[in-house]
Write a structure and sequence with these properties.
By secondary structure, the protein is α+β, with helices and mostly antiparallel strands. It folds into 4 domains: 189 residues, no CATH class; 224 residues, no CATH class; 121 residues, no CATH class; 82 residues, no CATH class. Strand 8 and strand 9 form a beta hairpin. The chain is elongated, with a radius of gyration of 44 Å. The relative contact order is 0.05.
């Protein structure tokens, strides 16, 4: 098709100027054309087109303005992109407004999360107001001054009334002017087109029905393309269906492939029901009201190089630092260390360089962030999620790791990235390890609506988890080995202003630890670490281990203050073991003394009896102090008359002990002198 010639453009403009439309109607159409032409093409064009058709403005002016600014948009694209990037990335006070736009059922698919689109719309808003007043002034000047001035020309007076002039004016100059004629319409229909009140709904209804007939044929393809773009790996479905009345999209045999090993699937979902609607599908945008999954399976594998297969899909983060670390150290850490390192990288905001987006109007123009398409799900429900784990690094004779089964998984207000959340995201679930129904757990977590989107609160409970079966998870993280034990735990942790606070409660049954020769416990020496382990084992052999611990520190790396409770348990265990050993020795000595006839029948001089009683009471006090009260039931010997001690206080006896000893020595010396003198006299 040939481009319009200057003469045809002039004819169109003169026809508009001579029409019966007011300057306001013409200038409004020009401003609407600016809104439609300056931004890139997309579903957002429907908004100004609808207004231009509904209002009684010059639709021809709208088309001319749209074409004019569509040509100029290429030159203005760099400025539009910079303005949109500034608005979306730096004006954090507008977050609520952007989230509101993204969640609107009609406005959202128009793509206002793109830098270039948002910038061009903002630029159109800036240019629309002066353009409106400028065009209205020009139309008024033409009709009041230019037309009258042209009519004073001699050639105009000479041509006036001649044969063929009217026909030529209609052909080349838009015909006679009509703006001076009285208005033929009254009331609201001077502004609104009567026929469009019925025509526009019918037009859009027909378009919707036509799309409803076409969309089911490629709904699965569009959905898988969008998910593939968001995850960075291939997504496939065997079949799909779309219900026009309910807006429900059903995907059968949904699989997410491992990019490194395409024949293996990371996620397998037999059936996915999505409440999507057609507008998000037509705009290649993942905004769902609800997603219901009856069953799903996630396969997590620790590969031969130590990395996890879930690292392979690229979801917009720059994972190169994590991959480099994993290649060097992954073979020396356990699963817990790998996951901890992975989550620490996921918390860091380091987007990838924008890659080509074949499903966007402008490659690299996506903004939340540039390399990812937005994903929002109001409510996600999973009836049963089975997580199987495989370890290619270690061949354990105990067999594969027990699978993790989660039930009734509910996620509300899921948004990716987190800046799209209007309300806090909440996750709740419960499940079990392996085939043991008693080894259950539950989790409830809340995530904030801040820019980082981090967790704001966690409540969880674990019931009778068999620790040795999960040794590969913590083998290098914990400073001790675990030979046996069942753990039950509850906890509540809150995160606010970059700090964490909360508490944990532990119950350990049938616990037996094994000291590690390569790692110290709480920074203690190797010998002391072994004694602590012996103490905990001794305590756990008698009673279950129950203790609490506080959680505090920075929110990105909180610490658990369980050193003091565990050391206290170790101390009590060692005291219990010491008491048992002493009691055994005391019983053996008592049996031997009884076999020798005892000591109660041995006579003691009456002068020694107070000292004997005092020394035995003082000795018991000293033993109790040294032994921590373990020997409080140790009996004190009776005197020679088989009568108990006279009830003197121990502290008083200890204080009187030196005096009694001196009196006894003095008495013995005096008796010796007297007896010596008597013998000498004899």
């Amino acid at each position: 098709m040939l481009l319009p010639t200057p003469i045809s453009w002039m004819k169109k403009i003169l026809t508009i100027l001579k029409s019966d439309l007011s300057p306001n109607q013409i200038s409004l159409a020009f401003a609407l054309g600016l809104f439609a032409g300056l931004p890139p093409m997309g579903m957002h064009v429907l908004l100004p087109v609808t207004i231009a058709l509904l209002l009684r403005c010059s639709f021809r002016t709208f088309l001319i303005s749209m074409g004019l600014f569509k040509l100029s948009s290429l030159a203005l694209a760099p400025g539009s992109y910079a303005l949109g990037k500034w608005l979306l990335d730096t004006q954090r006070g507008l977050d609520a407004f952007w989230r509101w736009l993204v969640h609107l059922p009609v406005i959202a698919p128009m793509g206002y999360s793109q830098y270039i689109l948002m910038g061009s719309v903002a630029l159109a808003c800036i240019m629309a107001i002066p353009s409106f007043f400028l065009i209205r002034w020009l139309v008024g000047r033409y009709r009041t001054s230019w037309s009258a001035w042209v009519s004073t020309w001699k050639i105009s007076r000479w041509l006036k009334g001649r044969r063929g002039v009217k026909w030529g004016r209609r052909l080349l100059a838009g015909g006679e002017h009509k703006y001076a004629l009285p208005a033929s319409r009254k009331g609201v229909f001077r502004v609104v087109r009567r026929e469009m009140l019925v025509g526009l709904p019918l037009l859009y209804a027909v378009a919707y029905l036509a799309a409803a007939v076409i969309v089911p044929f490629f709904a699965g393809t569009v959905a898988t393309q969008s998910v593939s773009w968001a995850t960075g790996t291939e997504v496939a479905v065997s079949d799909s269906s779309f219900n026009l009345l309910t807006g429900s999209l059903t995907l059968m045999d949904f699989t997410l492939q491992d990019p490194q090993v395409p024949e293996e699937n990371l996620i397998v979902i037999p059936n996915v029901k999505v409440n999507a609607g057609m507008l998000p599908l037509l705009s290649n945008r993942i905004v769902f009201n609800s997603v219901v999954i009856a069953e799903a399976e996630l396969h997590v594998k620790r590969e031969a190089d130590g990395t996890l297969n879930v690292d392979n899909p690229s979801v917009g983060w720059n994972m190169q630092g994590y991959v480099d670390w994993a290649n060097r150290y992954a073979n020396t850490v356990d699963w817990m260390g790998l996951l901890k390192r992975l989550f620490s990288y996921l918390r860091e905001w380091d987007p990838l360089v924008p890659r080509e987006d074949p499903y966007a109007a402008y490659g690299g123009s996506r903004s939340f962030p540039e390399s990812r398409s937005p994903l929002t799900i109001q409510k996600l429900e999973i009836g049963r999620l089975l997580i199987t784990m495989e370890d290619e690094m270690i061949s354990d004779p105990q067999g594969p790791l027990p699978p993790l089964t989660m039930f009734e998984v509910e996620v509300s207000n899921l948004a990716f990235p987190s800046s799209l959340r209007r309300n806090p995201m909440r996750i709740s679930l419960h499940g079990q390890w392996g085939d043991d129904a008693e080894s259950g757990f539950s989790l409830s977590a809340t995530f904030s609506t801040s820019q980082s989107g981090g967790v704001s609160g966690v409540d969880f409970a674990i019931n009778r988890l068999d620790l040795p079966r999960l040794a590969r998870f913590y083998a290098t993280t914990l400073p001790v080995g675990i030979r046996s034990g069942l753990v039950s735990m509850t906890g509540s942790v809150q995160f606010e202003d970059g700090s964490a606070s909360g508490s944990l409660s532990f119950l350990l049954e049938d616990l037996e630890l094994a000291p590690s020769s390569s790692r110290s416990l709480f920074g203690l020496s190797e010998a002391m670490s072994e004694r602590v382990v012996d103490g905990i084992n001794g305590y756990a052999a008698e009673v279950p281990v129950v203790f609490g611990a506080m959680v505090e520190g920075a929110s990105d790396e909180p610490s658990i203050a369980w050193e003091a409770p565990l050391l206290e348990i170790a101390r009590q265990g060692l005291m219990m073991a010491g008491k048992r050993e002493l009691n055994r020795t005391i019983i053996e000595l008592g049996d031997r003394i009884d076999g020798l006839g005892g000591v109660s029948s041995v006579p003691i001089n009456s002068r020694f009896q107070p000292l004997q009683q005092a020394t035995e009471s003082a000795a018991r006090e000293l033993i109790e102090r040294a032994g921590g009260g373990l020997l409080q039931n140790l009996p004190v010997s009776d005197d020679a008359t088989d009568k108990p001690a006279n009830g003197m206080q121990t502290d008083a006896l200890v204080d009187q002990l030196p005096r009694l000893l001196n009196d006894l020595l003095d008495s013995s010396a005096n008796n010796g002198d007297t007896e010596g003198g008597a013998s000498g006299s004899d």
